[in-house]
Specification:
Largest sheet of chain A: 6 strands, parallel
Oligomer: homodimer
Largest interface: A-B, 31 and 31 residues
CATH class of the largest domain in chain A: Alpha Beta
Organism (chains A, B): Aythya fuligula
Order of helices and strands of chain A: EEEHEHEHEEHEEEHEHEHEEH
CATH topology of the largest domain in chain A: Rossmann fold
Catalytic activity (chains A, B): diphosphate + H2O = 2 phosphate + H(+)
Helix content of chain A: 25-40%
Strand order of the largest sheet of chain A: 5-4-1-12-13-14
Number of helices of chain A: 8
Low-confidence stretches of chain A: none
Family (chains A, B): Belongs to the HAD-like hydrolase superfamily.
Mean pLDDT of chain A: 95
Keywords (chains A, B): Cytoplasm, Hydrolase, Magnesium, Metal-binding, Nucleus
Strand content of chain A: 15-25%
Number of strands of chain A: 14
Function (chains A, B): Phosphatase that hydrolyzes imidodiphosphate, 3-phosphohistidine and 6-phospholysine. Has broad substrate specificity and can also hydrolyze inorganic diphosphate, but with lower efficiency.
Distance between the termini of chain A: 14 Å
Radius of gyration of chain A: 18 Å
Chain lengths: 266, 266
């Protein structure tokens, strides 16, 4: 019956839409049963890693918020795009113009940002003003060889007050305006899942990704050789179940249900 | 030598980047020789029509600005996307949510905008705030069958203080976020050129389009069976001359030069 849940040694959990819905004055609302589910995973001896495309805050700030919402989580357990982008920038001698959320800027503190030779775009939210997007466009189109690095390619996410446009939409705007293709750091990039698996020390065939995004979470993880489960929380929409390219290994109502099934198979 | 300029009975002129560069406190700066070139065309007996994707103002306001800059132009001579969009909306019983410049809104005065069943996006400029773009996204993704109508698909245009992102970039953002394809009203849509030709009363093979946009002006007009000339003013960039798909019938330094060549062949 629940063959998808067998032979598991490690779990990768998406955060937004799986642990909690972001937004509102408190910064978000936990999804019922998710905090308990994280505790159960930790008690089970399964390996666990949080694999997020969150780029609205430093990992420190983000983790603090999640702890405040009742989650047992630490910075060292989180794989996120900004540190991955910093590694890539250093390796290639790239100096970014940042089109990101103010709260993400400290993640790039060590990076030389003078005389930019690339643009990094994250989920800048309200910082996606016309002036800011246009400034990034001008930097990009002024480069002899435009390099655009995108922290994820999500279409939208769900906050407590509704759906919000994600970084992918603005990545597409800049791609089109400058006739370039962005390099994506974060889910669904294969290298990103592979680094999360390496940090967890579990091979893909023994790991399950649990997420609410049919493309970035489910499709990306499956491309990597992992199993992937879609939760019916967060940005999940019923039409996801007819997605032309991606079919999850299972659907579950929420993280709590996924974890109960997986633990019952140990 | 100048075979491209022979057998002409009518001219379609792009406005921004051909007659003038927009922006700045006066609303723009005429391109040297363009006002005189328009007068020469009118004196020659050639048919003339202005074919613009301008959607930052009503035609009335836009024409008034151009008159102030010294151009002999009237509202009746201008083919623009907003009136074409209004015809389409009425024909199909569509009620738009508008993501456009404040100054364009009066063009839609006669259109029912209650309980929207489509989104119309124009060159909203500073109105492309995150909140406004997100609101349009929410309307669109909430529709059972999302309909997105875009007033042009330009990548960028040139103002006196530099390049500015055009409607096409935001069209792409919404297309991606909602997984829809926009219907484009305005250049390079064939129907738009055809209506400009009909208004002028000249068949495509006897008409020349003069514009600064290699895709929207030149490519679009050629698709329609017209000849098309690219000026080296406005948003023109030298790399346009290596465009993989579109090759103009001629390049000219500016409108004045194009008009002198055409008139010399009459």
């Amino acid at each position: 019956m629940e063959a998808w849940a067998r032979g598991v040694r490690g779990l990768l959990l998406d955060i937004s839409g799986v642990l909690y819905d972001s937004g509102g004055s408190g910064g978000g609302v936990p999804i019922a049963g998710s905090a308990e589910a994280v505790r159960k995973i930790k008690a089970s001896g399964l390996k666990l890693r949080f694999c997020t495309n969150e780029t609205q805050a430093t990992r420190e700030k983000f983790v603090k918020k999640l702890q405040g919402l009742g989650f047992d989580i630490s910075v060292a357990e989180v794989t996120a795009p900004a540190p991955a982008a910093c590694r890539l920038l250093k390796e290639r001698g790239l100096r970014p113009h940042l089109l990101v959320h103010d709260d993400l800027v400290p993640e790039f503190a060590e990076i030389d940002k003078t005389n930019p030779n690339c643009v990094v775009v994250g989920d800048a939210a309200e910082n996606f003003s016309y002036a800011n997007v246009n400034e990034a466009f001008r930097v990009l189109i002024g480069l002899e060889k435009p390099v655009l690095i995108s922290l994820g390619r999500g279409r939208y996410y769900k906050e407590t007050d509704g759906l919000k446009l994600d970084v992918g939409a603005y990545m597409k705007a800049l791609e089109y305006a400058c006739d370039v293709e962005a390099e994506v750091v974060g889910k669904p990039a294969k290298a990103f899942f592979e680094s999360a698996l390496a940090e967890m020390g579990v091979p893909p065939q023994e790991a399950i990704m649990i997420g609410d995004d049919i493309v970035s979470d489910v499709g990306g993880a499956q491309q990597c050789g992992m199993r992937a489960v879609q939760v019916r929380t967060g940005k999940y929409r019923p039409c996801d179940e007819n997605h032309p390219q991606v079919k999850p290994d299972a659907y579950v109502n929420n993280l709590a249900e996924a974890v109960d099934v997986i633990l019952s198979q140990l």
